[in-house]
Specification:
single chain; 229 residues; alpha/beta; six-stranded mixed sheet; 8 helices; 6 strands; 15% strand
Length: 229
């Protein structure tokens, strides 16, 4: 499916924070990537990924948007249409074993992508889990705090709670917010890996990442905390 003509691939939407430069390339797609961007991302060492949904309950609240960014700041947003059940190119990319996918709070995104599009993501890195293991000096592990400290970028979160279901009419502010949530993840991921290795917690982090698909499946089936007494 084609990128929207109204947004040139070399021009980002107006960013809500003046301190953030525009992405190297930016595109918005309906339903799936095109072949050009699939090839572009397929050669990446890592790919930052985020999702937006109508809410936090899988199966009730539909997936609305998937955002991607590579280490060269090539950023795109894929608008997931109501009733859509698959995205073949996106699935091929996110299941590619040669490309690491980087999430913040992967547990939610893994479940959302599996529930909404039948995608089983692998391999992946979760910056939220990594932050909790590495940044034990801080109680703040949200994306805004992690990116601010490790990358030096202040994220604008004003559009976080908004109507993502109006995919055909998403505002420039919403798209800029969505892009911002992935543009700095790879930099934060690299800093966190260095910290984890320094503190000899890297293998523990890998074991934690391996558990996340199980938690995502439990969330999709609406189980509570089955590990509690």
């Amino acid at each position: 499916m084609e990128a929207l003509d109204r947004m040139a691939m070399t021009q980002a939407p107006t960013a809500p924070a003046a301190s953030q430069p525009p992405p190297a390339r930016f595109a918005v797609f309906d339903g799936d990537l095109d072949d050009t961007w699939l090839a572009l991302y397929g050669g990446a060492r890592a790919l930052a990924v985020d999702t937006e949904a109508m809410g936090l309950v899988h199966g009730r609240d539909r997936l609305c948007l998937v955002q991607l960014c590579d280490e060269h700041d090539n950023t795109c947003c894929i608008r997931i249409l109501r009733g859509q059940q698959g995205a073949p190119r996106l699935k091929l990319l996110l299941e590619n074993p040669a490309v690491e996918k980087v999430f913040h709070f992967a547990r939610f995104d893994l479940a959302a992508l599996a529930e909404g599009l039948g995608i089983t993501v692998a391999p992946f890195f979760c910056t939220k889990v990594a932050s909790r293991l590495a940044r034990t000096y801080s109680p703040r592990h949200g994306l805004k705090d992690v990116v601010n400290e490790l990358v030096g970028v202040e994220l604008d979160k004003r559009a976080q709670s908004s109507d993502w279901g109006r995919v055909e009419e998403l505002t420039e502010v919403q798209l800029a917010y969505a892009a911002g949530d992935v543009r700095w993840l790879i930099g934060a991921r690299d800093r966190l890996e260095a910290m984890l290795r320094r503190e000899e917690r890297w293998q523990l982090a890998e074991r934690c990442f391996a558990c996340l698909p199980v938690f995502a499946d439990l969330d999709r089936q609406h189980f509570g905390s089955v590990f509690e007494h």
